């Protein structure tokens, strides 16, 4: 599966963005989808993931209550709604796919990655 992210940009603290990740192919619903991010000088970290049909989600503690992951299997797209953004949310955001049912938190468990989209939050 090939993944392409959209929707990054520059936003003031307290603002919001919606990231999208479009997947190629006809088997999108076969994949658990995740969002990760990597800030300058830091390791890539888990943000959120969603089960194949969207019934289960998990979030990093740092984004819980502010970010929402969702998916539309008819459109082969996964979304990440980012609300109440903080300067520490500044990072390149990546979507990732893992075939099967396991909701992994580790980036190494996701074989497929997009190119990333930059989110910059100014104070």
Describe, in plain words, how this protein is organized in 3D.
By secondary structure, this protein is mostly beta strands. The protein is about 0% helix and about 50% strand. It contains no helices and 11 strands. The protein has strands at about 5, 10, 15-25, 30-40, 45-50, 55-60, 65-70, 75-80, 90-100, 110-115, 115-120. Strand 5 and strand 6 (about 55-60) form a beta hairpin. The model has no long low-confidence stretch (mean pLDDT about 95).
Strand and helix layout:
Blueprint: E1 3-6, E2 9-12, E3 17-23, E4 31-38, E5 45-50, E6 57-59, E7 67-72, E8 77-82, E9 91-99, E10 112-113, E11 117-122
Parallel strand pairs: 2-11
Antiparallel strand pairs: 1-3, 3-8, 4-5, 4-9, 5-6, 7-8, 9-10, 9-11
Short description:
With 123 residues, the chain is mainly β. It is 0% helix and 50% strand. The radius of gyration is 13 Å and the shape is globular.
């Amino acid at each position: 599966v090939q993944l392409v992210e959209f929707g990054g940009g520059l936003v003031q603290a307290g603002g919001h963005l919606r990231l999208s990740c479009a997947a190629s192919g006809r088997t999108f619903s076969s994949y658990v989808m995740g969002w990760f991010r990597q800030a300058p000088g830091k390791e890539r970290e888990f943000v959120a993931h969603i089960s194949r049909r969207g019934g289960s989600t998990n979030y990093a503690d740092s984004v819980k209550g502010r970010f929402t992951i969702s998916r539309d299997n008819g459109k082969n797209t996964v979304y990440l709604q980012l609300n109440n953004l903080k300067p520490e949310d500044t990072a390149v955001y990546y979507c990732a796919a893992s075939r099967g049912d396991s909701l992994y938190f580790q980036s190494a468990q996701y074989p497929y990655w997009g190119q990333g989209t930059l989110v910059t939050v100014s104070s």
